[in-house]
Every structure is written in structure tokens, then in C-alpha cells.
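Minutes, project check-in

Agenda point 3 was the complex the collaborators sent over. CS summarized: two entities, 603 residues total, and the question is how they sit relative to each other. Sequences were read into the notes so everyone works from the same version.
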Amino acid sequence: MYYLSIKKEDWHRSLEKLLSSHDIFVPVKDELSLDYEPFRLNQADKIAYNVPKPATPLKNFFLPVRENVTGAVKNGRPRIIIGVPNCDVTALRLLDEIYLDEAFTDPFYSQRRKNTLIISSDCHSVNEHCHCTSYGVNPWPEEIADMGLISVGDCIVLRIITSRGAELAKEFPAADPVDDPSRIRLAEERQKETEAALAGQNKNLPDYRTTGEIVLKAGREIWQKYASKCVSCGACTTICPTCSCFILIDRPGFEKIKHTDACQYPGFERVAGGEDALFELDQRFRNRYMCKYVWRPQKFNALACTGCGRCIEACLGKINKNELFMEFV
Amino acid sequence: MAGTNNIYKPLRANLTEVIEESPLIKTFVLVPDEEFVFRTGQFIELSVDGVGEAPFTPSSSPLVTEKLEVTVMKTGYVTGIMHELKPGAVMGIRGPYGRGYPVAEFRGKEVLILGGGCGLAPIRSLLFTLEHMKDDLEKVILCYGSKTPADCIYKPLFNRLNSIDKFEAYRTVDITDDDWDGPVGVATKLLDSVRVNIDNSVAVVCGPPIMMKYGTLKLLEMGYHDDQIYLSMEKNMSCGLGKCGHCMMGEFFVCKDGPVFTYNEIKHNPEIWK
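CS then shared the predicted structure for the full assembly.
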């Protein structure tokens, strides 16, 4: 891992040049939200730097809502996604375990992962429900992403993380090794500030392992209480960077359409004979928590919740999972 | 997976014969476009073109690779349409998926098999395998229950099994009819009269959920240890690849980690019988 620094105007020029060979997505903020948009010529001033959490989770770049999975895998143009927060980057660890599983590699996911470079970014501010550090995730990237990005005054400092990141760095010829250690120190101070802000707003929130214990022990009356405002809309799973369940729909010609699905929807586990282990709404509600904090951690070497807090923001019933955990800590 | 690098793409198979086993159960004889290799107890996703697919464990011998038989009970939407199919139809096969029966571990032992209803389909495949390796086995006992005598599938199988050295097969029915003179009651009742050396035995259970539960409890009561009982679990195995999430049973994807589990592997989860 090493650092490069490049003047913003040179950075923008290089990005514009890369448009001839790559699709580039950048976070853009408007009055309603922050989300990824395709980067276009002369729009560099719209890029939002070092702000947390675009509305769309990173998974959507790799797992489309709907796709024909019996057709050919298309190569497509290489992509660069800029400004991905580390909660979303960390979520790829679980998705990679599932979709790049050696026994059954998903060729579409695999192709998109190979085809995509990720320039993550240090978070220099905190949203109301951000709680990555509670689950051991830093609000800055040091792995999985190809680069990390820090906006410092009129410069962009790039943390080069992977060999693919180092290769991409060659496309920024004006970037120089950071010779002024104070720039790195400045970046590290910002990291500490963000960390402190997250610790402050989540001081009563249990860690990941303790959360698992709480979820495992919780009796049915607790799930019924919190699920009483759930309408099974599936917003929490749709917006979650690690939820990736799907359904296969058959089309003539033995085509299969893979469509996102959610354990929150009625009938998710129903079998042909009619049995349905998740028939009751509170059972479906509990299932999501058991999956995230008990079952997936038992099965995979990856977090199934990276503390992005989007499920809390998206919930139509204003259910805040963290209130549940803090009630029983 | 045979024939393709795309895990989602089915292999085509010609439906050459449809055998009526009982009023609700038919066996489909399929000849896939390519040789199809599976281990007994593994399952496939069988699809009706443009309609849907569902998981089934082949009921034929894994030693036969040019064709396979799948026994299907008419239960829901896809199986309803499957039952309308005639020879000549083209179906889709994905798989084989999951972990089958660890038959190598059955060597030198007595194998007690408890089956109910359509659960005899995977068991028939297992029986073919055990017959092939019978010199390495002490004994094979099948206890099978069906709702009525008419609901019993593979009826000639029982006489054939009883004619094979080391094999014993017993049948019971829940509801009798005029022609039935055998035992009446649930399949687990047959276990009361079998002679088995439990210390040197494994038990295999495959059938409807209620039988899986009470069959397991009965075997435990008889003295079987948790790791001597093999259960073939049934969930909504949709993708078969350990990805789609529909068949989660606790931390396990039944499709990939199962469908065969020892009771010891899953007993910590109180929800397995749901």
C-alpha cells in the first residue's frame, strides 16, 4: 500500500481521458440524496468526495435486479466506480464467497468483478445511522478496493491498495508519490475524527458478536413487537449491501431469469406441499436478523452486516434494528 | 456441471417413458443429451420448459448414466404440469447438486432404512447402490409406510428386495383396504419388530416431515446415536447452488450442504422439522 497525490485538475483530465475506454461512475449529490451517476465530460465539479453512502448499494453494480442467466456472458466495457464507502466494499467479501464459490461460480458476477475497478473513499463525515465501526469495519478502505481516495485541498491523494489499483494509477501520469508526510498525517487525522464521531453516536450499540447472541436469545414476543410495524415490503433487503437472495423464473427455451428476492416476502420458503417455515410475518422478520448475525457468520468468513444503516433509513415502518439491539444489550 | 460452464443453464433431456406408480405419483424416464453422473442421494432441478423447475432426487441407480428416472408426486403447480407430460417431451436438468448418502461409510454395517410416501424415490436409488455393494454390508432393512395400499410405489420392489441375500423389506399402511393383509399403522411402528444390531448400524430416514421427526425420535429411543442417523432434508431448493437463499435451514444451505445430513449435524437447530 502506498500513496500518490495528484492535483484535482490533472485528476479530472485523466478521468475524462479514461472515458474513452471505461464507463466511470461517480457519487453526485443533489437536494434529495447522494447517488452514483455516469461520469461525463465537463462534469468533474459535480463529484462528491469523501461523503458516506450513496443511496445505491455497491452490490447493484454486480448483481442486477433482473437478468437472463442462460444467455452469453457479455464482456462489456471496463468500469471504474469511484467514491464507494468501505461498508459497501467490505460487503463484497460475503458476495464473493457466495458468487465466486469455486464449486459454482456465477459467470455473470465473476465477469463484472473482473471488469470493475473500485476506487473507494475515506468517509470524512457520518450519516445518522452509520455504524460500521461497531462491527469492526473502518470508515476507510485498506483492502478489497483497488484504491482509496482522499480529497485534500486542491489535491486528490490516492491510496494504492491492489496490483490492479497500481496498474490503474499509470493512467494518472501527473500523480506523484506523496513526499510530504503531513498530507498522510492529515488523512489519518480525518480518519480518527470520523472514527470518533461513529464511536460517539453508537456508544451503546453492541458489537457484532454480542448482537448475534442477542438475536439468538430473543424470544418470539420481541420479534412480534418489532415486526408489528413491518409491512413485508423488502426495502431492508433491497437496500442491504449483503442481501443477495434471488429467484429463478423460467422462460420458454429453458431460459432462466434471475430476479432479486427477499426472505421478507410471503412465500419465500414455501414448498409445493404447502409447508412454509416463514409463514408468519414475525418469523420472516426474525429470519433476516438470524441470517445476518447468527447463521451467515457461522457459515462464512465475512460480515453479513457492515453497519451501513441503510435498512434503518429505508424502513417504511420506521423500524430501527439498533434500538432492538440496544434494548437487550 | 455436465455440458455447460454456465451454472444456471439446464441440460436437455428427452422424456422417453412415464410410469404411473400410484394415483398421485409418476416416474419419468429421461435420456439426457449427455451422460449424466450423480451420487445416490444427490438431487437435480428438473424443469418443464417455460413453466418452472423443482428439485428431485433421482430414483434410479447411479450406476446407470445414460438415462435416469425421477419419481414425482403431483403436489403443486410445476408437478401438476409435469404429470400432464407425455413421452417425447423435452425437459431440462440441472445438477447433480448437494451431498448424497456417504455409502462408503456404510461398509461393514447394517443399514436400516425408514421411508414414507414419495420418500421411497431417493431410497430406491440408495437401495440399488447398496445392492451393488452388498458383499461389503451386513444387512439392509427397509421399513416403508404409505397412506393406503394403492399409494405404495414400486410395489414389485418389495418382493425383489426380499429375494436378495441380506435384504429385508417391510410395508405398512395407514389406512387399509379389502385386499390388504399386512401391518396397519405408521412406518415407525415397523421398527418395533426389526432385528438390528444398533451398535453396528446406520439408519436412513426419508419421507414426509412428520415422519422424519417421529422416525428420528423413535430411532434415538431405540438407541441410535445422533451421528448414526442420516436424514434427507427437504426445503425449497430453488437454485441448487448455495446462493438463492430459499432453502436456508439455520446456517446451512440444504441444497449444497445437504440434502443428506446426520442428525448430529443439525440437531442444534430446533427449527429443522418445520
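Noted in discussion: The mean pLDDT of chain B is 95.
Follow-up: revisit at the next meeting once the mutant set is ready.
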